[in-house]
Amino acid sequence: MSIRLLSFLELxxxxxxxxxxxxxxxxxxxxxxxxxxxxxxxxxxSLLTDIQDYLLARVPEIKKxxxxxxxxxxxxxxxxPEDFPLAAIExxxxxxxxxxxxxxxxxxx
Length: 109
Prior knowledge:
The protein is 42% helix and 21% strand. By secondary structure, it is α+β, with helices and mostly antiparallel strands. It has a four-stranded antiparallel sheet, with helices on one face.
């Protein structure tokens, strides 16, 4: 089975879609860490715990996830290669949708 790799343009497109859908803002980013914030995450400890557990279980390239429900942030420590497959991004979005629904949040497309 061949896996198509994620191009820069596809990554940018998916990033724009996810930003719109989940209202995620990148607060800071380095080559191995990104700090994100969303109004959906403010005081939502259960949602953030589910997101944290999901990311750590599904993406071996993610080494650590730190959440701060009081201000609605998630910090992800990772070592994701440039050739991260498109299918993995699509699978993550599907999983995140399920987590949001489980926590009673229906998002606008």
